[in-house]
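Friendly challenge for the regulars: who can give me the structure tokens for this chain first? No prize, just bragging rights.
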Amino acid sequence: MGYVQEARENHVKKKVEEALRSKMKQKALKECDRYTTKYAECASGRTISVVWQCRKQAKELNECLHQ
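First reply, four minutes later:
Bragging rights claimed.
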């Protein structure tokens, strides 16, 4: 297999991978909407304190997204 052919195959693989990753992200955000809302409500109006004030909501959101 030549260099050009191999480069084309790798390019196609990356496009497929990007498309799958995008679909997975959309699905995860849709399924975790309630956790996203809870985190957004907690974070609203905060700046630096969001880190410690919303730790529980952030953890719940991350656990959902990782599933």
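Residues 8 and 32 are 36 Å apart (CA to CA). The chain has a mean pLDDT of 88. Your move, everyone else.
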